[in-house]
């Protein structure tokens, strides 16, 4: 095969076949296009505002390393004046995280970005090595995922940073969409298409920077449309130094299968990855107001508080982490928690039928604003159990065949009044954990539940790692 | 813990396979799997006789998809790099 020249500059040798459009381009053109595509993702979704303090969730792996490098490059080049810091979570996995943290420390020095490390041992009193010694390898990803979710938020709060960006890429996004499709979980599928996965409440902005509480941290995924292949190619051509090995604890089988399927599809038809994301976005439009947190909604969407459960999948750094290890003891515990909360809510939940606009109108980021003047004690929500894998709630999502009406549960919350007369953001019934204060739809958050189980058993077994 | 380096970089020094045929990338990967790979999880590298999807291959610093993939015939001095994308990020 004769060497072909780059389709962009027409001079250098083509070195990469772009998966999204089959363009054959040289490495320098690729680097420049890759960076400008990330920049355009950031600006078109209005992910950042000038001068914003942003913590980069840094694992030392390829995705977060490329994210840190690209953000640093763009920030310097385009004068965004972002205040970037690296934030790492030390799960306490000997032979894995200790090595990857060395890479993060080198990045901190190379990029001139401050680094904050928060550890499970400090936050929870348990390292993952200790957790695994206690519970075995099965289901430990659940613990890791639940703990990581909070750890990043707590770390950000310690830094006074209200926005954490993570290195989730297009392959991760399509994998998560596919998994949720295969589970029939449309609410989660819908949320997984968002580039901003959670946004701070109105209260936070009043507090201003430097007074961030750990329940008010925005999350976003600037690499959501970047192919994993191109991320690795970028790291290769830029000679980025990243840590590459798998977590030594077993990944979840279902996610692994979804990943394999995605990779097989990519080889046959690389566009599939972005097409799955686009399909997910289109399907999300069919989910009636499960959340206001839509793609591109950005900062100024007041209704984005709702989908902030602690159990959002794929929010961690290890790719295999999530709280949905089917068939594990955790799933049983979740089911029990869900049942309890269902019982507790009986009597406050009524089925009503309400008209909704034809879907195209509800898709605009600002088209579906909350009604600030609504009665403070009546909030229309999606059933929170829809976020908790309760099969029964799927009846709600099966009602979309009718084009203009849908059935949603109406919940009246008698006890909760709106503090400080602020406009009430529509939200699922999301309170705070009575033990640690983290956002939770249960009175005790998942991390605290898990810790309770661990701590109960601790005196018997002791810790030997 | 058995660790496999990632990426793996190889410098080609031979040009014919055991039957005297010119060796291509498919031959190289099978050979690596049989002779050099110590990690027992060979399926992370080669699956059903070909390079596992998700493992990127660079031939002289270019995407192997531009070079004929597994059919690319190795020449002395070629540099072949295998990079797995299957690790967490
Ligand atoms: Zn070029
Ligand atoms: Zn808690």
UniProtKB/TrEMBL annotation, chain A:
The UniProt record lists the EC number as 2.7.7.-
Q: Where is the composition biased (Basic and acidic residues)?
A: 333-345
Instruction: Give a GO molecular function annotation for the protein.
Output: tRNA binding
Listed InterPro entries: CTU1-like_ATP-bd, CTU1_C, Ncs6/Tuc1/Ctu1, Rossmann-like_a/b/a_fold, TilS/TtcA_N
Alphabetical GO CC annotations of the entry are:
cytosolic tRNA wobble base thiouridylase complex; mitochondrion
Top-level enzyme category? transferase
**UniProt entry keywords in alphabetical sequence:** Cytoplasm, RNA-binding, Transferase, tRNA processing, tRNA-binding
The biological process GO terms on file are: protein urmylation; tRNA wobble position uridine thiolation
Keyword Cell inner membrane attached = no
Gene3D superfamilies, A to Z: HUPs
Cite the tRNA(Ile)-lysidine/2-thiocytidine synthase N-terminal domain residue spans from the record: 54-246
Q: Which family does it belong to?
A: Belongs to the TtcA family. CTU1/NCS6/ATPBD3 subfamily.
Q: What is this protein called?
A: Cytoplasmic tRNA 2-thiolation protein 1
What species was this sequence derived from?
A: Salinomyces thailandicus
UniProtKB/TrEMBL annotation, chain B:
Q: Which family does it belong to?
A: Belongs to the URM1 family.
> What InterPro entries does the record point to?
Beta-grasp_dom_sf, Mopterin_synth/thiamin_S_b, Urm1
**Which pathway does the protein contribute to?**
tRNA modification; 5-methoxycarbonylmethyl-2-thiouridine-tRNA biosynthesis
Protein role: Acts as a sulfur carrier required for 2-thiolation of mcm(5)S(2)U at tRNA wobble positions of cytosolic tRNA(Lys), tRNA(Glu) and tRNA(Gln). Serves as sulfur donor in tRNA 2-thiolation reaction by being thiocarboxylated (-COSH) at its C-terminus by the MOCS3 homolog UBA4. The sulfur is then transferred to tRNA to form 2-thiolation of mcm(5)S(2)U. Prior mcm(5) tRNA modification by the elongator complex is required for 2-thiolation. Also acts as a ubiquitin-like protein (UBL) that is covalently conjugated via an isopeptide bond to lysine residues of target proteins such as AHP1.
Nucleotide-binding keyword on record: no
Query: What Gene3D superfamilies does the database record attribute to this sequence?
Result: 3.10.20.30
PTM:
C-terminal thiocarboxylation occurs in 2 steps, it is first acyl-adenylated (-COAMP) via the hesA/moeB/thiF part of UBA4, then thiocarboxylated (-COSH) via the rhodanese domain of UBA4.
| Superkingdom classification of source | Eukaryota
Q: What is this protein called?
A: Ubiquitin-related modifier 1
- In which compartments does the protein localize? Cytoplasm
Q: Which organism is it from?
A: Salinomyces thailandicus
UniProt keyword list = Cytoplasm, Isopeptide bond, tRNA processing, Ubl conjugation pathway
Residues that bear 1-thioglycine: 89
């Amino acid at each position: 095969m004769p060497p072909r020249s780059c389709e962009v500059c027409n001079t250098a040798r083509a070195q990469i076949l772009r998966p999204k459009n089959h363009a054959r381009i040289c490495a320098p053109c690729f680097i420049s296009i890759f960076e400008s595509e990330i920049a355009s993702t950031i600006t078109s979704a209005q992910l950042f505002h000038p001068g914003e303090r942003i913590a980069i969730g840094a694992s030392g792996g390829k995705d977060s390393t490329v994210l840190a490098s690209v953000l640093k490059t763009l920030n310097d080049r385009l004068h965004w004046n972002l205040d970037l810091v690296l934030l790492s979570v030390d799960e306490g996995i000997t032979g894995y995280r200790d090595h990857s943290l060395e890479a993060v420390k080198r990045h901190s020095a190379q990029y001139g970005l401050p680094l904050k490390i928060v550890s499970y041992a400090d936050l929870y009193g348990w390292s993952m090595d200790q957790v695994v010694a206690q519970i075995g390898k099965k289901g430990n990803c659940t613990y890791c995922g639940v703990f990581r979710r909070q750890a990043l938020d707590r770390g950000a709060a310690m830094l006074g940073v209200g926005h954490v960006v993570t290195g989730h890429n297009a392959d991760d996004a399509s994998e998560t969409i596919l998994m949720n499709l295969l589970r029939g979980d449309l609410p989660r599928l819908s949320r997984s298409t968002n580039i901003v996965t959670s946004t701070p409440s109105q209260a936070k902005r009043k507090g201003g920077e430097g007074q961030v509480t750990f329940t008010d941290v925005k999350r976003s995924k600037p690499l959501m449309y970047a192919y994993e292949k191109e991320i690795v190619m970028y790291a290769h051509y830029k000679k980025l130094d990243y840590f590459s090995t798998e977590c030594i604890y077993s990944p979840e089988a279902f996610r692994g299968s979804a990943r394999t399927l995605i990779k097989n599809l990519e080889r046959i038809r690389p566009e599939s990855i972005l097409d799955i994301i686009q399909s997910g976005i289109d399907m999300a439009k069919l989910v009636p107001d499960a959340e206001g947190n839509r793609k591109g909604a950005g900062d100024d969407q007041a209704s984005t508080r709702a989908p902030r459960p602690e159990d959002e999948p794929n929010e961690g750094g290890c790719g295999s982490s999530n709280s949905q290890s089917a068939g594990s003891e955790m799933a049983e515990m979740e089911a029990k928690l869900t049942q309890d909360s269902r019982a507790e809510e009986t009597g406050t939940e009524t089925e009503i039928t309400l008209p909704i606009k034809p879907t195209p109108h509800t898709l605009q980021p600002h088209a579906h604003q909350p009604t600030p003047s609504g009665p403070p004690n009546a909030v229309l929500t999606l059933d929170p159990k829809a976020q908790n894998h309760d099969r029964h709630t799927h009846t709600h999502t099966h009602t979309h065949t009718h084009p203009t009406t849908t059935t949603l549960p109406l919940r009246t919350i008698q006890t909760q009044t709106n503090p400080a007369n602020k406009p009430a953001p529509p939200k699922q019934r999301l309170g705070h954990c009575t033990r640690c204060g983290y956002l939770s739809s249960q009175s005790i958050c998942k991390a605290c539940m898990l810790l309770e189980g661990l701590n109960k058993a601790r005196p018997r077994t002791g810790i030997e790692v | 813990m058995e660790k496999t380096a990632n990426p793996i970089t190889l410098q080609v020094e031979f040009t014919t396979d055991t039957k005297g045929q010119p060796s291509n990338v498919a031959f190289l990967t099978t050979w690596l799997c049989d002779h050099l790979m110590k990690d027992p999880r060979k399926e992370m590298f080669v699956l059903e006789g070909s390079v596992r999807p998700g493992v990127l291959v660079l031939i002289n610093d270019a995407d192997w998809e531009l070079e004929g993939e597994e059919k690319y015939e190795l020449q002395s001095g070629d540099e072949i790099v295998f990079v797995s994308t299957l690790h967490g990020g």
